[in-house]
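Structure in, sequence out. Go:
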């Protein structure tokens, strides 16, 4: 089963902003935790695999920095550009981890959210990150890992999607080993229990949009039957219960 995924050949760019929206409290938690991990100010940020820029403008605002959002999906970039066209601090460019269209030493922090498992070539990407990062620059990685797939509730209803994520997600040890082997020091590591939905009804609605690539990779039949079971489960959960999921945040320094 292939786990490679081309966003522009899917429906995801049309529904990403609703399906993957993060509540403001969640966004603030990520930004604050990143800020607390840095020891020097950052002036230029690369949001690598920025998608439609979910984090790009919030990063520019929080750090008062210039942000380059880079992504290979023209459709995801088009949403980002349309929304942020009046913002001079943020620039969106077509590119990918393996070929970053920026000069060497141009960036003080590279941020990557939920993109590590999409790279065609992780080693090539890390070498590109080293090239664009200035000395002592930061690499901030936000990703799910193989180690904690079991705590992602909805995946229990879509066994084939779970299998895909188990196959393609890195382990925590793998991430740390890869960056250490490439000359990065680990400054901090957290698993943030982020709120993904305010209650189980919203959780069901978000998952039903099929905005996660693992759900787009399974058959319609598997998706529909999983969704039916997820609906029953969500209806049985107590009202006003926030739905949380643990996502890793690694902060490395070059
Ligand atoms: C799950 S989305 C994450 C988007 C954004 N970082 C966020 O958190 O909202 C994954 C993104 O990775 C991008 N992507 C896929 N292959 C990539 C590559 N080789 N280099 C950089 N980005 C890539 C996709 O186009 C997609 O926009």
């Amino acid at each position: 089963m292939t786990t490679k995924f081309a966003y522009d050949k899917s429906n995801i760019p049309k529904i990403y902003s609703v399906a993957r929206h993060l509540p403001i409290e969640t966004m603030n938690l990520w930004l604050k935790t990143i800020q607390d991990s840095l020891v020097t100010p950052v002036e230029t940020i690369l949001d690598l695999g920025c998608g439609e820029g979910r984090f790009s403008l919030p990063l520019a605002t929080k750090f008062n920095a210039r942000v380059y959002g880079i992504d290979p999906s023209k459709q995801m970039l088009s949403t980002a550009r349309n929304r942020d066209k009046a913002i001079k601090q943020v620039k969106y460019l077509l590119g990918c981890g393996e070929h970053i269209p920026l000069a060497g030493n141009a960036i003080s922090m590279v941020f990557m959210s939920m993109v590590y498992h999409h790279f065609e070539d992780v080693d090539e990407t890390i070498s590109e990150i080293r090239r664009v990062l200035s000395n002592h620059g930061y690499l901030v990685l936000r990703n799910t890992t193989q180690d904690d797939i079991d705590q992602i509730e909805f995946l229990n209803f879509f066994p084939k999607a779970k299998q895909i994520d188990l196959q393609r997600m890195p382990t925590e040890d793998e991430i740390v080993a890869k960056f250490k082997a490439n000359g990065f020091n680990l400054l901090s590591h957290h698993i943030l229990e982020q709120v993904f939905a305010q209650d189980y009804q919203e959780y069901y609605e978000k998952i039903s949009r099929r905005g996660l690539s693992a759900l787009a990779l399974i058959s319609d039949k598997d998706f529909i039957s999983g969704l039916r079971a997820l609906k029953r489960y969500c209806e049985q959960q107590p009202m006003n219960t926030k739905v949380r999921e643990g996502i890793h945040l690694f902060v490395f320094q070059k």
